[in-house]
Structures are given as structure tokens and as C-alpha cells.
Amino acid sequence: MAFGISEFKSNLKGGGAKSALFQVDLNYPSLVTPPSVNAKFLISATSIPASTVGTYEVFYHGKSIKVAADRTYESTWDTTIINDENFAIRKKIEDWMKLLSNHELNTRDKRVTRIDVNKEGKNAAYKQDLIVRQHSKSGSILESYKFLGAFPTALSTIALSWESNTIETYTCGWTYDCWKRL
Question: What is the pLDDT of residue 50?
Fold first, then answer.
């Protein structure tokens, strides 16, 4: 069945969502002082989260029937961050990770060992909610996703080279309990 370009264009509302129009809101635990820069300007890449509904099989007279099971989430969510000369965001993420596991002794900060469960059931001492927002070309918010109970678990290297003249970037991997669309 043939269709015209005008029909295609009329079904692609707003000309399609642009992957470069997004922002990430990082929230820091109360034990980490937020950096002097706003992360929404320095996070250069991320993703809208994936989700999977699992299945299991139930057998009836030798035939299998697939039944919906639990929802599962990706194990991590990655952000790519542009480094400024103060290392402002990186230092704060390193401080956050130090609360979880000290470099020298591999111990957790005593201030986060207590279970301080808030109304959402997360350990408020080191977990925070992070938000990614997708924007339209006019600047309005198209969709927002909140990562509940997130904390940093992987901080990548920063490549250095005499042959390069580019601005540094690094990746932070976040583990989270679940996500929801706002």
C-alpha cells in the first residue's frame, strides 16, 4: 500500500523528537555538598530507560501458555559528563562513592550505615532520585523519567593525551531501584 510524504509527515508530530534536547537533574545526598556547577549543562549524553516484562510458562495438558511475570530494569543507567577545570561534578560523585566504600579501608561511612527509610522505602542516607527530561524543539518538556533510589557505582577513566585537544568527558554508571515516567 503506497502512501504520500504528506501522510508520513502528518504522523510524525513536531517533526520527531530530537535526541540532543534533554537535561538530567542530579540530586545529591545530604552528606554531599552539591557542586558549584549545574549538571544539566554538563551531562552530554544519557538514555531514556529500558524496561522488560518477563514471562514464565504454565503447562496445561502438555501445551505451554506464556504468562506475564515481573518487570525488570536495566542494572545500570549511564551518563556522560563534560569535565570542567574544577572537576566540580566528578569530585562530588567521588565524595558520594567514598561514603559507600572508602578507598583506604573499604569501609562505609558510619553516617550511611544506619537504615533511614523514607516514605518511598529507600535508604535516604545515600540514595537519591535522578530525573531525565526530554524537551521539544520549542523547549517544553515532552517526557520525564525518574530513577528512584539511585547512587553512583561506576566512574570511568578520563583519557589524557598530548595528541588531543578535546574537552574531557567521563561516564558515570548509576544503579537504581526502579524508574517511573512522570
Answer: 86
